Structures are given as C-alpha cells and as structure tokens.
Amino acid sequence: ERVFFPPPPLSLPFPFHHKDNKHFIIMLSTTRQFCSTASRNFQRQRQIDLLQSCTLNSTLSSLPSHVSSQSSYYSIANAATSVSNTSTQPSTTFFKSESTPFSSPLLESGRSWFEIESLFKNKPSTIKCSSIKNEKLSQNQNLNRVHLPNRFVDKQPYYRISRFNYHSLRQVLLRSGFRRLPLPEPQASAVPPDQPAQAGMVQRDAAAASRLEQRQLKVALTDPDHPWNLFWGRHLPVHMYKHFNPFQKVNHFPGTTTIGRKDAMAQNLDAQAKRMNWRHNHDKTFYPRTFDLPSQMDALKKDMQENPSQKYILKPSAASCGRGISILRAGDFSKLPHKDEGSYVIQHYIDNPHLINGLKYDLRLYVGVSSFNPLKVYLFPDGLTRFATEPYTDNIGNIFSQLTNYSINKHSSTFVKNIDEEDDDMGSKWSVRALQEYFEEQGIDHRPIWSNIEEIIVKTLISCEDTVNSKIDSHLNPKHDNCFEFFGFDVMFDENLKPWLIEVNLLPSLSIPTPIDKKIKMNALGQMFDIVGMTTYDRTNLEKEIDRCFHYVPGYEPYSELLGGKSTKSSLLGEYNQKGSFSPGSLMNLDSMSSGGNVPESIFTPEQNYVIQNAEDELHRKGEYKRIFPPQDGDLRRYDDVFAESRSHNETLVQWEELKQQHLLRGGNMRDLLKIVE
User: Per-residue pLDDT tens for 605-630?
Assistant: First the structure.
C-alpha cells in the first residue's frame, strides 16, 4: 500500500498512497555499490522506472500535495502524468544530476516546507524545522505551507556540512525542506615527476592539508553560484565571516573555543572566580579546580603535596569522546605528560559522585545561543543521562566504573542498549526527564537543582562573552546575525546533588545509535533551528531580497554595520534615572494602555525596537526550550554583577522583561504591549 524510495543523499523519502483502484508503484533500479566513484556517480543519477501499469484518470493537480512538493531532484509528477496514457508498458526514464543544482535558476520539480509567521508584520517568516506532528508546540505558531510550483524561481533552502556523520542533523533538515550541497572533493596536488606515487596516495604534511581544507571551505562557502542557507561544521577562519550574506547561518561564533577547549575554559572561569571572589567559596564554585599543563606543573605538584588523598583526572585540552583520559592519585608524578606531549589539563576528581543503583552517571544538556550581543541563552528541557556500566568503586583503573562516556562504555560487556524511545529509564542511557521522574520517586525536589544548573550555564557563557563580542565586532557585520551555537554541556552531581560543570562541547555528538538519542537530539536540533530563524530567499535577486526582508531594520544597508556597540547609555523608555529604572512618564503611558487608552507612540529607539522584536520572535518560536538569559522569572538582575562589562542591548532586554511583568500585573495583554515596538 505504501512504497518508499530509499533516501538519496540530497532528498527525502517520498510516500505514495493508493486510493480505491487508482494506484501506482514506483521502484528504483539501482545497483548499490559503495566502493567505486563510478557507482557513486551512478547513484547521483538515479533512474526512476515505472514498472507497473497504472490507471490514472486524474490530472497532475489531483496528485497528493506531498508527492510533487517534496521531490526536488526527480520529475516524479511528470513521469506519473506520462504513464496515465499508457497501459502495460514501462514508462520513459528520467534523470536529474545532483552535481550542479544551480546550473539554472529554474529547477524541475515543486518543493514545499512550512514557515512560521513573525509576530510583527514587517518581518519575514522563517522556516519551521521542528516536527509539525507535535501539536502542542505548533498550535500557538502561525504556520504557512510554502509551495514552489514547477519552474518557479529557486528559493529552495540548502545546507552544507563538513565531512562528519551528523545523522540527526541531516534528518532534521531534510524533513524541513532543505537540500544538501556537498563540499567539493579534496583535490590532491600533483606528484613531482621524479617521485612515484605511492599506491595512488599523495603524501603531504598536516599543515599543508589544513591549508588545503581551508581553501576548499572558502571556495565552498563563498561561491556565489552555490549559495546556501546553513553551514554546520568546525570553526571557520574568522576572515571568512565577512563574505556571508544576511540570510546565511553558521553554527559557531568566532571565539567560542575559549569555553570549548578545556584549558581555555578553565582560564576564563578562574578569571571570573577571581573577579567575583568565588575561588575559595565552595557554595559559589561550580567547576573542579583545574591546572593547565605544562605551564602550571609547579602549582599542581604543590597542590598534590597539600592534598595527599586527592584524586585527579587528566585530559587532553582539545580531545573528546574519552580519548586520552586517565585517573591518578596525588604523587603519581610519573604518569604526568612530558612537555613535548602537548597541552593537557588535570582536575580535582569528583570522587564522591551521586549514584543510582550503584552506578556513576553524568548529564548531557543541550544549550542554544542565538546571540552574544544581546546575550540570549536557551536550555532544552530534555537531554541524556549517561551511566557507567560497572558499580562505582575505589579502583581508579576500571574505566567502566569511573568514566561515563558513551564512546567508552558501549564496549563494556554489561552495556545495555536502549531499544525503545518510550522506555527512557531503561538501559545505560536515560533521558533527563526520566532522571527527574526518578528524583520525584525518591522524594527529591529537583527544581532547585535545575535552577543551579541554569546558573552554571549562564555564568559559563558570560565568562567568554567579552572575547566573542570583540571578535564579532572585528570580523562580522553585527547586524547580519549570521551565527548561532548549539552546545553540549556535561554536568555531574556529587553525593549532595551539587552540580559540577565537567566540560562544554562545541560539536556535541549528533549520532543516533539508539531510539532515545534520535528522539532527543532531533527535537533539540529542530527547535533550535526554529529559534535561529532561517529565511528563504531568491538567489537570483539577492539585493532585492535583502531589501524586502530587512527593510524593518533601521538604517539598514546591505553589508553595513549598524548594531553591536558597547555603550552603557540607553534611551529605552525615554529617560532612565541613574539606577536604570523606568521614568515615571513612561509608566504613565503604559498605565493608559491598561486602562483602555490609545497605544502610545513608540517610546523606543529604532535599534531597541529591532532588539526587542528579535527577542520576542524567538520566544514565539522557542518550542520546549526555556530562555534562561535574559531570565524571565525570579530576580531579573541576578547576573548583572557577573558581566565584566555592561552592554546596552542586554540592559534593553532586561528592562523590557521588567516592563512586561509590570504591564501584565496591571491586567494588560501582550498584544497591546508589542504594538509599541512595531
């Protein structure tokens, strides 16, 4: 009754339903060989054979919308139409090469996706990437289905990814209407005539390979003939950001390696603790004491002498997946790396972890950052709880009892794999929501624990925001909003359920080895892309599209700098007093709104309108995410003294949240309040 195409690299599965006696079956005639380049090229020109006779009395327009709308590279509708006049003979075959999708501004088949309308009439809609099956999330979003008919000027969203297996990422984007533009294949340099090639491989040193990769990335990401909407991969060289148009998004801000590398994060957090006088306050400290090797070797040896019973964990500064980790006791100087072995960090080991069924565990939490000026941080409510596979003991040589990394414990004979996303409290990997339910069953109130985790995340990001903003000011157009981040925060509890930050992952694993991985990672990614807000555009008329989609930005000119200043002065709501509170005149205007009076004229500057509109649109699209900065509950100013430098846009959003609270307490509604920033 339903036949699916095997998903090709740049396309989605296409469902076909039978209806009464009118049905058709489409098969692929493809030899699946994965060894040779010839077979890969053959797969890119997949042959569609209509093998069974069909009785199609309907016209092309009567085909299901999802048949013609999701086929970007095959003329399925045309093929089906040609068969409607035949009886038993196979149809003509059709080919479409994926190697040059932009060879013409007109593609051959229709495409469709859903878009979320903005809260503000002057702003464009954005592509919806989260699942539309989640009615709870979609019911409050004004969704429109965008359909590009045959031979329509191309506005199809495209993405590029680096050469990693981001399975959940690809699935989220493909189901949302995106198509992939592959990076160019590496081109080996010619072998000198006097040096014979060795088994067809060209030898080159690591530095030359890195330079070659950067050149390929620059060609791929700045090629005007192959524009894209999204790039996902490692950090790009900072000089490449200036080439991006305002519709393009990349998954890293320049400078976030200062928390992605273990040594740099330790330095940032140490500087923050010293400035805030947290270093020797156990209640304020949330990061184990860390030493950077080899530069802090003397300080480490002194610490070992002062704490002879302390255990330590040694990690490479820039490794992941548990590679190079070892645990040692104080005084084990022979196990410390030599100076020529690279950069390492060594931390106080949390030797009193909280246990469940005798097993150690940690959390992988997903955090999105849509902007660093103003800083906007979102926490996904679900994540992964990763267990060690053997009971915790004092034996530091047993990695299956001491370490919680999935990449290590999956090789244990006692590892239990999750096989059902609904059984998220079974096996060696739970969901965070299942852990919260476990706490409730044990009579543990997890709400203050999660409040502490939110505070850890915000303070960690504040520790690097000055560095990130300085790089943004130097290398990006602050107005274009090209960057976002999707972090993986690793957190562990001690026996008192105090959370400790272990590390921050700039590229958290997006593989989906289990159903629970697929469910959590795809939901977190899809809803994060909704927050980021990607907009389609006509690539053949880029300048006109920029004017159409960004005319609401005050004084906007393509590729011109507008925002991002560090001034602490602001004209928000007219005049501030010296403490930054609302002026009485501004509150009187708002009182008139709540009393049924007319909406006052805009009391914000155009730049502040822009900042507030973006923030409110993101809240409208955030799905299950919780915005933890600027905070929306409790003391809205609890992080003011943590910043090394105050920024006017952060102040704008905090003042706006204060205004919202006061307005709603007076019986007002958000619809009226939003009118003053339109």
Answer: 888 998 999 999 999 999 999 999 99
Residue indicated by tokens 């932009």: 102
CB 382 within 8 A of CB 526: no
Residue 56 to residues 53, 76, 85, 245, Cα–Cα distance (Å): 10, 14, 8, 45
Using alpha carbons, select from 93, 90, 87 the residue that is nearest to residue 75.
93
3-class secondary-structure state, position 25: coil
Helix (H, G, I), strand (E, B) or coil at 383: strand
Q: How confident is the model at residue 572 (pLDDT cuts 50, 70, 90)?
A: very low
Given pLDDT bands bounded at 50, 70 and 90, which one contains residue 671? confident
Residue with tokens 């005539």, as numbered in its chain: 193
Main-chain phi, psi angles of 10, to 5 degrees: -115, 25
pLDDT digits (tens, 9 = 90+) for 294-333: 899 999 999 999 999 999 999 998 877 778 899 999 988 8
> 3-state DSSP call for residue 646?
coil
Residue 485 has pLDDT above 50, yes or no: yes
Type of residue found at 163: R
Annotate 451-498 with DSSP letters as a single string.
HHHHHHHHHHHHHHHHHHHHHHHHHS-GGG--B-EEEEEEEEEBTT--
Task: Give the per-residue SS3 of 96-112.
Answer: CCCCCCCCCCECCCCEE
Could you tell me which residues are beta bridge partners of residue 290?
Answer: 347
Q: Say which residues have a Cβ less than 8 Å from residue 426's Cβ, sequence separation at least 6.
A: 416, 418, 420
Cα distance between residue 105 and residue 664, in whole Å? 49
* Integer CA distances (angstroms), 600 to 428, 483, 592, 616, 678, in order: 58, 35, 8, 19, 12
Mean model confidence pLDDT for the chain: 75
Contact 610, 552 (CB under 8 A): yes
pLDDT digits (tens, 9 = 90+) for 405-459: 999 999 999 999 999 999 999 999 999 999 999 999 999 999 999 999 999 999 9
Q: Which is nearest to 257 in space by CA: 317, 332, 195? A: 317
Q: What is the pLDDT of residue 6?
A: 39
Estimate to the nearest angstrom the gap between the alpha carbon of 491 and the chain centroid.
19
* CB count in 10 Å sphere of residue 349: 18
Instruction: Please give the C-alpha separations between residue 487 and each of 17, 45, 466, 503, 631, in angstroms, as whole numbers.
Output: 40, 37, 18, 10, 19
Please tell me the distance from the alpha carbon of residue 553 to that of residue 246, in angstroms, as a whole number.
Answer: 12
Q: Which of 253-267, 589-603, 637-651 has the lowest mean pLDDT?
A: 589-603
Q: Identify whether the C-beta of residue 453 lies closer than 8 Å to the C-beta of residue 365.
A: yes
User: Please, which residues bridge with residue 347 across strands?
Assistant: 290, 313
Tell me the pLDDT tens digit for each residue of 183-218: 665 554 444 444 444 433 333 445 565 566 666 677
Rounded Cα distance, 478 and 565, in Å: 9
